[in-house]
Amino acid sequence: MSVDQILVTGDPLILASQIAILLTIIGAVVGITYFKKWRYLWEEWLTTVDHKKIGIMYILAGVAMFFRGGVDGLMMKAQTSRPNMEFLDAQHYDEVFTTHGIVMILFMAMPMLIGIMNVVLPLQIGARDVAFPKLNALSFWTFFVAAMLFNISFVIGGSPDAGWTSYFPLAGKEFTPGVGNNYYAIALQIAGIGTLATGINFIVTILKMRAPGMTLMKMPMFTWTSLVTSILIVAAFPILTVALAFMTMDRLFGAHFFTVAAGGDPMLWLNLFWLWGHPEVYIVVLPAFGMFSEVIATFSRKNLYGYKTMVASIVGIAFLSMLVWVHHFYTMGNSAAVNSVFSITTMMIAIPTGVKIFNWLFTMRKGRIKFTTSMLWSLAFIPCFTIGGVTGVMLAMAAADYQYHNTMFLVAHFHYVLIPGVVFAVFAGLYYWWPKMFGFTLNEKIGKWHFWLFVIGFNLTFMPMFFVGLDGMSRRMYTYSEGLGWEGWLGFSAAGSLIMAAGFAALCYNIYWSFRFASRDVGSDPWDARTLEWATASPVQHYNFAVVPKVDSLDPFWKMKKKGTFKLKKQDIKEIHMPSNSAIPILMGIAFGIVGFFLVFEWFTLAAIWSLGIIACLVANSFDYDDGYHVSAEEVEETERKWRGDL
Amino acid sequence: MATETSLPLEYSTKQNEMNILGFWIFLGAEIVLFSTLFAGYFVLEGNTANGPAGHEIFIFKDVMIQTFLLLTSSFTCSLAIYQMRNNNVKGLITWLVVTMALGLGFLYMEINEFIHYVHEGATLQTSGFLSSFFTLLGTHGLHVTLGLGWATLLIIQIARRGITPVTARKTFIISLYWHFLDVVWIFIFTFVYLRGLVM
Asked: Are residues A424 and A528 located together in one domain of the fold?
C-alpha cells in the first residue's frame, strides 16, 4: 500500500491541515518537554480517576470538537453562500457535512454534557466520586481516542461521506468503496462503549450514592435528568452497537445485512439507526433541560415551579422517545396506518415538553431575576427552542412531511432544537459551574458579547433555511444555479454563520481573559445558589465533602443557608477513603484506538495483534487489587480551614 | 471489610453492592444488544438468496448436545456459588473448573458446527440469512469465550486469595453472566434452531 492510498493528497486545504496538525503535535510535545510538564500531566490528568478532572477533560475535548465541527459548518455556509460556488467540490462537501453531523452530535454535544454531568452530578448528590471511578476514566479515554480516530480521517484515508445517518445502500462497500465509512463504523463503535459505561456508572452513582435523606423526589432536577438520560443510554446505545457491528460485517467482511442482492435489507439499517438515533436526541437534550432548570431557579431566586410535573415530563419524554423512530422516514413506503401511529406518538412528545416550558416560565414569574450570562442563555433558549418545537410538530404530521422531508426546512428545524436545546444549555452550564470547576467566574461583559453575537448569528444562520427549505431546496446540495430565489436567503445565512463564529471566538477569548485576569476571590457560592455542589469549596477539594451533608428537602443548601446550619463540626471530620489513580484506562483507550485504526484500513493481522493490548489491560485490571488510599482527618481539617477560615 | 454479616459475603461492602447493581444494569444493556441481534435475524431469516435455508444445514443432534452442555454448565455454576456460600474454596474451584470444561465443550462443538457449515457452502457472505445467523451465534460464542478467559483469571485469584468479599463478588458476578448466556442460548435454541427446522 503506497503513501497515496493512506494520506489524502491533492487538495491544498487538506495539505494545509496536514501541515497544521503536524506542527501542532510537534509544538505540544516540545512545549510540554520544555516546561517539564510530562510528569504533572501524567499524574494529575492522564491517569486521574477524579470525576471533576475527567469532567474538565471532557469539556476541553468538547470545546475543541466544537471548533472542528464549527469549521465544517462554516465551510458549508461558504460553499452555498453564492450560486455555482467553486470553493468545495461535491466529494469534499459530502465529507464535510458528514463529519459536521457526527462531530457535533457525538464528539461535541455528548462530551460537553457528560463532562458537566461528571463535574456536577456527584457534588449535587453529596457523593465523593462516581460509583466506578476507573471505569469513568475508561469512558473518557475511549471517547477521546474515538474522537481522534474519527478526526484524522480527513487527512488519512478520507472522511466518511454518506451523511451522519450513513444510509445503505449508499454507505455500503459497493457505492462507497474507500476507507472513509470504515472510520464511521469503527470510531463510533469505540465511542459507544465508553458512553454505555458512563450510563451504567451514573445510574449506580445516583441510585446508591446519594447523601443521607436525599430521596429520589428530593434530588435536584439536573440529577433527575442525568438519571433518565443514563437509563436512555443503556436502553439505546446497544442498538447502535449492533447496527454498527452489522455495518462493519458488511463493509469489512462481505456480509449481506444491508445489500439487497444477497437478501439483505437496507431498511434494517434505517430502523436500527433511528431506534438509537431518536432516543439519542433526548439523551443530549434532557441533561440540557436539567441545566436550565438549575440556572433558572437560581437566578429567579425561587424554587423550581412544578417539580413533580417536571420529573413526570422527563420520564414521559424518555418513554415516548423510544416510540417515534419511524418519523424519520415517513416517505419510505410505510402504510398509512404505521405513519399515523408514529405521527401521533411524535406529536405527543410536545405535551411533556410544553409542560416543561411553562414550568420554567412560572419559575421566573414574580421572581427577582438576575440577568447573568447563564440566565441570558436560559432566557434565549425558551423562544428559540419553541420555534424548533413548533416546526417539529409540523414535521410530525406524516402527510405534510412529504413536502418537508429532506429539505433545508428539516435542517433548520433540528438546528433550532439542538442549538438552543444543547449548545445554549452547555454555555449556560459553563458560565454557571465555571467557578465550581476553577475558582473564578468567567467575565460577564465578554460573556454578554459572546451571548448576543452567538444568539443573533444563530437566528440569522438558521431562520433563512426554513424559507429556502419551503422553496424546495433539499438538504446536502453542494451547489445550486442562479434564479431559484435562494441566493438572498443563503447569503444572509452565511453572514449569520460568521457572526456565530465571532460569538464562539468571544467565548474562547473569555476563557483566556478570565484565566489570566479574573478575580480569584469569588468564594464558594458566587451565585447564592440552592443545591449541594455549592456547599463545598471552589475549586472543589479532591474529596468533595469533608463531611457528607444530610438532606431533608429540595434545595438543601438554600435551606442550610437560611437556617444557618451550614457549618462544619470539627469532631465530625473522619479520615476519607479515596480511589487511587490508574494507568489502565488510558492504556486501554490507546489500544482501542490502534486496533480501530488497523480495522479501518482492514489490516486484520495487525488489528488482531494489538487486540492483545486490550486483553492485557483487562487482565491487568482483573489482578489490580489496589484498594485506594485514605486522607487523614488532620489533612481534611487543614484543607477545610483554608477555605472556611475557622472551624 | 465486611460490615453487615446478615448478607452474603458478595453483598457485604457498599462497593460490592454497587458493582453487582452495575452488572445487573449491564445485563440490561446486553438484553437490548441480543434483542437487536434477534430482530435483525428475524428480518433476514427468510432471505436465503439461493443459499441453504436453516433446515437444510442444521444438525439437530449436535445442537442438542450443545444445549445439554451449556444448560448443565449453568447448573454446575450454581453449585460453585453454593460452595462459595459454604466458604469451601476447594469445592468452589472444582465446580468452576467443571463449569468451564462444559463451556469449552460447548465452544468446541459450536466451532465444529461452523466449520461444517462453511464446508457445506454456507458462509457469512452467502446470504442475508446466514450473515445474521453467524453474527447472532458468533456474538453469543464470543461471550462464552470471554467468560472462559474471565473465569480462568478468577480461579487464579481465588486460589491465591481464598474467598474474600472481593473474590466472592467477582464470582457472583461471573455467575450472573454465565446464567445470562444460558438464557440467551435458550432463545437461540428455540427461535433459531427449532423454528429453523420446522420452517
From this structure: yes
- Specify the residue for cell string 422516514: A329
In chain B, what residues touch A625 (CB-CB under 8 Å)?
166
Asked if ipTM goes beyond 0.85, one says yes
CATH architecture assignment, domain B61-198: Up-down Bundle (1.20)
Structural domain contains residue A575: yes
Q: What is the pLDDT of residues A98-118, one digit of tens each?
A: 999 999 999 999 999 999 999
Contact B179, B80 (CB under 8 A): no
Cα dihedral sign for B180, B182, B188, B190?
negative
B107-146: string of b/e by CB count within 10 Å (b at 16+)?
bebbeebbeebeeeebbbbbbbbbbbbbbbbbbbbebbee
Weakly modelled stretches of chain A, pLDDT under 70? 1-2, 4
Q: In chain B, whose CA is at the least distance from the CA of A260?
A: B128
Return the SS3 of A635. helix
Residue B14: per-residue pLDDT: 92
Interchain CB distance below 8 Å, B49 and A263: yes
What's the confidence (pLDDT) of residue A203?
A: 98
Q: Are A31 and A53 found together in one domain? A: no
**How many domains does chain A fold into?**
2
- Domain membership of residue A402 as a residue range: 37-582+626-643
* Residue A11 shares a structural domain with residue A66: no
Contact: A263, B47; criterion CB under 8 Å: yes
Scan residues 375-414 of A and list those with Cβ closer than 8 Å to B.
none
Contact A119, A62 (CB under 8 A): no
pTM for the complete prediction?
0.96
Do the Cβ atoms of B127 and A262 come within 8 Å? yes
CB atoms B131 and A257 under 8 Å: yes
Tell me the C-alpha distance between B9 and B18, whole Å: 14
- Clarify whether residues A82 and A29 are in a common domain: no
Determine, for residues B18 and A204 on separate chains, whether the beta-carbon distance falls below 8 Å.
Answer: yes
Q: Do A132 and B22 count as a contact with CB atoms less than 8 A apart?
A: yes
B148 contact A CB<8A: no
Report which DSSP code applies to A42.
I
Residue B38 CA to residue B36 CA, distance in Å, equals 5
Collect all residues of chain B within an 8 Å Cβ-Cβ radius of residue A243: 36
Whether B21 and A204 lie within 8 Å, measured CB to CB: yes
Note which residues in 72-111 of chain B have CB less than 8 A from chain A. none
Considering only CB atoms, B49 lies closest to which of A131, A241, A262, namely: A262
Q: Which pLDDT tens digit goes with each residue over A528-540?
A: 999 999 999 989 9
SS (H, E, C) A189-249: HHHHHHHHHHHHHHHHHHHHCCCCCCCHHHCCHHHHHHHHHHHHHHHHHHHHHHHHHHHHH
Assess if residue A619 is contained within a domain.
no
Are A436 and A387 found together in one domain? yes
Distance of residue A610 Cα from the nearest chain B Cα, in angstroms: 17
Specify the DSSP class assigned to residue A578: E
**A245 and A234 in one domain?**
yes
A622 touches chain B (CB under 8 A): yes
Helix (H) or strand (E) holding A554: none
Bridge partner residues of A156 (DSSP): A7
Average pLDDT, chain B: 94
Question: What pLDDT does residue A647 have?
Answer: 72
In a domain, A620, yes or no: no
- Rg of chain B over Cα atoms, rounded to whole angstroms, equals 19
Q: How far apart are CA B6 and CA A637, in angstroms?
A: 35
Contact A249 B135 (CB under 8 A): yes
Q: Is the pLDDT of residue B1 over 70?
A: no
In tens, the pLDDT along B156-169 reads 999 999 999 999 99
A243 touches chain B (CB under 8 A): yes
- Cell triple for A94: 459530502
Grid cell listed for B192? 433459531
